[in-house]
Fold these 3 entries.
Entry 1:
Amino acid sequence: MITAEETTTKSKLPTNILKLYSQKVTTADEAVQHIKSGDNIVVQPGCAAPFELIRALVRRKDSLENITLYHILIVGGLPYLEEGMEEHFKHKAFFIGANSRKAVNDGRAEFIPIFLSEVPMLFKLGRINTDVALLNVSLPDEHGFCSYGVDVGTIKTPAEKSKLIIAQINKYMPRTLGDSFIHINKIHHIVEHDEEIKELPQVDPDSTPEILAVFDKIGRNVADLIEDGATLQMGIGAIPDSVMKYLSDKKDLGIHTEMFSDGIIELVEKGIINGEKKTLHPGKIIAGFVLGTRRVYNFIHNNPIIEFHPQEYVNDPFVIAKNNKMVAINSALEVDLTGQVCADSIGTKFYSGIGGQVDFIRGAGRSEGGKPIIALPSTTKNDTISRIVPTLKPGAGVVTSRGDVDYIVTEYGAVNLWGKTIQERVKALIGISHPNFRDELTKYAKEVYRI
């Protein structure tokens, strides 16, 4: 647990660093006065968003225009995405969250399709020039280093490339280890504001018992594919949570993942996740960010088994592949009968993004003993729409190609498509589709694929 003693470290700063720190302290409203029209701003995303700075920026809207804000999804309301803000603020999303979906599809915000591993490279290589970084970081340690806390992945590199860094120093931000620090001499303006970090619970409160039962079956089917000594990529949501319920009989599991949530804590405490068999960073949990609750924030605070790194490292497929028995578990909106995976749009309507799916599918595919897995319910809308489809919806994006796809898992089983012909794939996927749609899918397959 993060205690007052552990987080109150400003008084421990050496005199010279304390003097520098004090010179930079200002209010949020004063700090954002240094932002000017036309600036490109990168915002720390996820549960780490600096809402005090965001609110101050929006209060300045009448004196600003053509501000562009870059980030992946942020948990919580974003006032600069409200209708009527378009002449002041434009958001360009690397991944679409619930709070930006309508703005993107209405044209008030824009979507940049990109692999998560390459997001920081846009800034590192100067494809996007960043004028301002807005951060939410921990109190400094006795050496003057603040931690990026719960989200390092896509912010550390662009922040280092920014001309102006404004940081909200927040006692509630945990101190995470790894490549996750910024020194106060790199921060131009410090805003001392303590605010609870946003939380994202694992289970959707709107999930019905029937839906949870489906996820439970999927979790069991995925867990059956995981061997002792495997290294896992596991995200947030009902499917990863369900998988973890069925790992209690496994041994020596490791974690190398773009993000994780509360679900891994119990497995770590039981010694099931210990990283002892990992071939890269043995004994360490490697990640870029967390999306979870206060429980996981307390768990990662000053925890020496956890290392956070920028996403260009964590999600590099060549780095991922260095983990033997790498198991990548990702989801999809729909999969066609040839194995094409759509995960970012519903037809022409953008829904989420590419994220780290392809990074980890390719990394796990090249890992010795690795298993790339796409897991999804066989239907949606109370079993009225099949997620295994003859063809993807018109305009739907192919995130994982039929050449990259390997395991597909639903509540009706798991199939391995790697090296299979189109006809073999079609038969296999029909076999794990919902029974209500198998006749319809078989009829289409006979007409088109001559099975």
Entry 2:
Amino acid sequence: MATAGTGNSGSDDGRVTGQQWRWTVLAAMASYIDAGSIVAIAAGLALWQEYLGMSSVTIGLLAAFGPNAVGAAMGAVIGGRLGDLLGRKRIYQYDLLLYAFGTLWMVFAFNTPMLFIGTFLVGVAVGADVPTSLALVGEFAPSRARSKLLGFTQVFWSLGPIITLLIALVLAPYGLLGIRIVFAHLFVVAIVTWALRRGMVESAVWTAASRAGDTESTPDSDEQASEPRDPLAGRNLRNLFTGYTLRAIVFTAVVYTFWNLAAGTYGFFLPYFLSTMGLESQAADVALQSLWFFTTLVFVVLIFMPLGDGRYRRLIFGAGAVCQIVAFLLLVFFPLDGPAGFNVLAAVANIILFGIGAALAGEPHYKVWSQELFPTMLRTTAQGLTFAVARTCLGIWSFFVPVIAEAGFEVVALILVIFLSISGIVGLLFMPNTAGKSLEEIEAERTDGRARIPEAAS
């Protein structure tokens, strides 16, 4: 039926239609507003603190309740579960209205409660949108172009901060008004995306699985009643915490959480790190932060998108993991507060290497694995759960970063090396052999016991 036609993941020629690219762009806007919101809030913290007279504790709570932590975690759990129960379309379409409503609170905030309400609503909306939008992309993508299309969402994860940072830089002379305009731009993006998404249809993969699950759970004939019931197609949460699916949750949660601890720390505290080198001008700050996101964008397009669905997936992930670890080892041996010249070179090398690593390991693979490893009727529930775990852990960890940094940033860098090593080692050892396979083929392997993920791969 046309009302349920977002393509078929079974295509194996890797060709992507114009409609699939268009739908991917609309789904990828979740990554744009997610990363853009985090950067916008960080850019405005000092101005809001001065305007509203907020204490450091209040600033910390504001950061914890927003799209970088608890708010997004709550939205991911709720939106992810509803995405499996009600369908992808209902959630990814209407959560943008909640996001737009939240940004209006940020635009017009004249007291602390308004700021908290807006930040929390933005976080919840972002959290709900990410798992359902990514599931939609994974379910209509050709089997040999899944990494290509999901990698394209990572391009928007880079564009969101770059554009937001540039707007903030241009509007810096206007102070707090400039930050209000930055959030007004996010409001416009959300409304336009919502209007365009209204033309999208429900995932054919989810629709078929939903109908199969309904038929199996409420048979209306003797023939249907005699058919074997596939437990992986059911909505029951018991299937989420048993056997293969539980192991897949632990695998993706560990890889993404430890990567996100490093990336989230980097994204939120990078201006502070740069200030220790004396680079306190906003132009230099924006240039170096944009360098990170631009590097990620370039390597996603040149390497991850064209090669991520083939036999080089493990090599790509391994190279990315090594780049990220080396990036922070540089700051262990060449601290930012060290001799002038060496610290600047170390900082630039760190930004470029981490940008490359972020394109090849961590979140891009997490997005792909989250579509491949979970059964259709639990896909957004599972991804919402792992996304929530990662954002909650980041929120808790962020409270300790400034205190640890007082002992020297090399201590923070060493801890981030440990985080990234855990993520990289687990990803390499337990990487699933799913590249280039259709979602139906992967699910069939789960059902008949041929799937080995996440047991150590050979």
Entry 3:
Amino acid sequence: MPGVDGFMYPNEVELQWSILIVLYPYLTGLVAGAFILASLARVFNVKEVQPTYRIALLTALAFLLVAPLPLQLHLGHPERSIEMYLTPHKTSAMAMFGFVYLWYLLIVLLMEIWLDYRKDIVILSRTKTGFMRLVYRILTLGSQNISEESRRVDDRVGLIVTIIGIPSAFLLHGYVGFIFGSVKANPWWSTPLMPVVFLFSAMVSGIATVLLVYQVVNKLRGQPVHMFCLDAIAKYLFYVFVIDFSLEMLDLVHRIYESDESFRSLDFMVHTKLYFSQIILQIMLGTLVPLVLLGANQVMKFGESTRRKMYTVAGILTMIGIFAMRWNVVIGGQLFSKSFLGYTTYKVEFATREGLLPAIALLLLPLGILWVLLKLLPPGEEEQTA
């Protein structure tokens, strides 16, 4: 057996990134994937997914608002974040994320949501009373014109913003894979396919999230869950999942074929410390089972109830599998020494700053924000029909 288990040499870098850093690319991936699904309805005019357009946008916003918090909690000094904008470090990929995040939040996502909801906001500012009337008046930003001409302008500008938002979503999450892939000293991360794999896995997780959120939201609102919409989302999820899985297998085959000096150590990791998270959770439960469930619905005709259950199970397992993939990349890449002779173990604490409890809270927080957003900006009956 290579190396020594549970030991790293004194001159080696010990594990520094915790579950919070696992959570960070996971949340940004959900944002990018949800926005890409919304773009199918807005830019590519895919009528089948139109009922999820507004839900996908609000889902992306909810997760985007929480996405930087794991980093802030990990660093411990959130008040220093402003320095990223006041004294920009142009050669730091991580520092540049601040500008990418600000661009995507203010220019892309918030603008598209406001343009799409502007008519509704103006109407609500006239019909609501009390405090909520004041809230909606503020949200109008002083624009009360909801004529047909103004709505056409909103649609044209919104389309342009969405088109700009597609590469912006790729940039938002692709740079995370770029950061890992550019660390040449770590063979687990150093692969040119890392940014591409991160992008497609982000699309997979985002689409799966919207598939689940759409069903839950409509059930809670007493609205029908349209099967034509679920079938379309599941179809796109299946196609993107196949591409994502193929890229990961391509990377694996390349590593096996190359078999450099790090291969023996990485192989040992997969068969021991990462066996459950990678083989069981990521590949078997989180990839193969969802692909079988989704693929079966592409070639066979099941009843609506059966299809809905299969889509739900596939969506949940997909979310678990993508999280396991992020775990294996972030944590797995730190469990072995640079000399490939020593290994260490990561133990997740519970009620600490970087423990399991704050991680769970950060995972649930976007759902609470989404609930508030849906109360403030309801999807509307017109979005529930094709």
